[in-house]
Amino acid sequence: MKKLICILLAVLMVTSVCVFASVVSAEENGALGYATPDEATKDEATKDEATKDEPGIFPDEPQPAGTNRYYFYLPDEWVNDYAFTAGIYWWEGSISGEYWPGNMAKSAGVDGVYYYDVATDTPTIIWNNYLDGGMDNSSAIYRASLQTVDIAVAGGEYDGMIYVVNLDEEYINSYNNKVTYGGQWYYYYGSGQYGNAQNKADADEIFTDKSFGEWATPDEIPTEPVIPTNPVRPTTPKPTEPNTEATVATEPSEVPTEATEPSEVPTESATAPTEESSTVEPEPEFALGDVNMDGKLNIRDATLIQKYLAKLNTLTEAEKDLADFDLNGKVNVRDATAIQKKIANLI
C-alpha cells in the first residue's frame, strides 16, 4: 500500500512540474513577443491595412475657393532637350490663363507629379510639356512639344484627381494636325500613388506609373538642335579713341620740312593707348538671349529662364537683361518661347 502511494505521489509531482514549465514558457514567449501562427497572420493583415491608410505627400499650398485642383503625371518620354516640366492650358472660365502653352504647372513634391488650381467653371483643359512648338511640323521643336487631347472637366468630378497619359492612345488634333495623347483620370492618394477607388484602402491596385503604353516615336526628337546666327544686343562700345590718335600721329610724316616736330608727336600718342588700355577694360558682348553667357544661343538659355520663372534658380541683373529677348522690360515665358523659336528657325 505504501509503495502504491509513493508511486502516485511521484506521478503527481512530475505532472505538476510539466504544467508549471509550460506556463512559464508561454509567459516568456509572450514577453519576448513570440506569436502564434494565427496571431502572426492577423498582424500582417493589420500592417497591410496601416500601409493603405498611411497619408500621402500632398502640396502645402491651400486650394483657393472656387477652384478645382487637377494633378498630372508627366511622362518621362515628354522630357527632352527642349522641355523639362509640365504646363496646363485652358481658354474658357472666370480665371484666365496664359497663351499657349498656358501656365507652368506646379510641382506636387513628388518626381513627375504636377498640379494646378483652375476655376470651377473651366470646361476643358490640355496638359502639355510646357513647350510652344509652333506650326512648322518639319522643325525639331515642333516634334519635341507634346500634349494631351482636349480633356473635358466640366462639373468638377475630377477635382483632386490625377490624369495619367496612355502613350498608345494617339489622336490627330484638328487645329494643328499635331499628334496628341489620351489618358485616364484616377483617384490621387498623394506621394505619386493613384488607383480606381476614392479611398486608398478600397483600391484594387495602387499604381505609381508615370504613363501607360509604349512610346512610339522617341527617335524623332533630336538632341542637338541647329543654332542660328544670334541677334546681338547693343552694349557699351569698346574704346577706340587711342587708335584714332595713333592714326593721326602719322600725318606729320607727310611734311618733309619739319622733321623734328613730328617725331615728338608720335611718341606721345604712341604711349596714350597704353595708358588708356591699362585703366579701361572693354565690356564683353553677349548675344541677346545668351543668358548663361557661354557665347551660344541654345536650349540651355531657355531652360534657365523657365527655371527662373519657376523659382528654381536666380538671375543676375546682367542675365535678366539678356533674358529679356523681346525687349519689353520683363522676363517671362514669352522670352523663353521666343528663344526656342529662334533656335528652331521659326523667327
How does this structure look, described?
With 347 residues, the protein is α+β, with helices and mostly antiparallel strands. Among the domains are: 67-220, no CATH class; 241-279, no CATH class. The protein has eight helices and eleven strands. The strands form two sheets. Strands 1, 4, 5, 8, 9, 10 and 11 form a seven-stranded mixed beta sheet that branches. A hairpin with a 6-residue loop joins β8 (161-172) and β9 (179-190). α4 (241-248) runs antiparallel to α5. The model is unreliable at 26-36, 45-50 and 218-278 (pLDDT under 50).
Task: Give a quick summary of the entry.
The chain is 32% helix and 16% strand.
Structure annotation, total helices = 8
Give the N-terminus to C-terminus distance in angstroms. Answer: 121 Å
Helical/strand content category: alpha+beta
Sheet-strand content, in percent, reads 15-25%
- According to DSSP, the number of beta strands is 11
Helical content stands at 25-40%
Radius of gyration: 37 Å
Report the uncertain regions.
26-36, 45-50, 218-278
Biggest sheet record: 7 strands, mixed
- The coarse overall form would be elongated
Mean pLDDT, rounded to whole units? 76
SSE sequence, one letter per element: HHEEEEEEHEEEEEHHHHH
Sequence-ordered SSE layout with sheet pairings:
Blueprint lengths: L1 H31 L4 H17 L13 E7 L13 E3 L13 E2 L1 E2 L5 E7 L4 E5 L11 H5 L6 E2 L8 E12 L6 E12 L2 E3 L15 E2 L28 H8 L11 H20 L19 H11 L7 H7 L9 H11 L4
Parallel strand pairs: 1-8, 8-11
Antiparallel strand pairs: 1-5, 2-3, 2-6, 4-5, 6-7, 8-9, 9-10
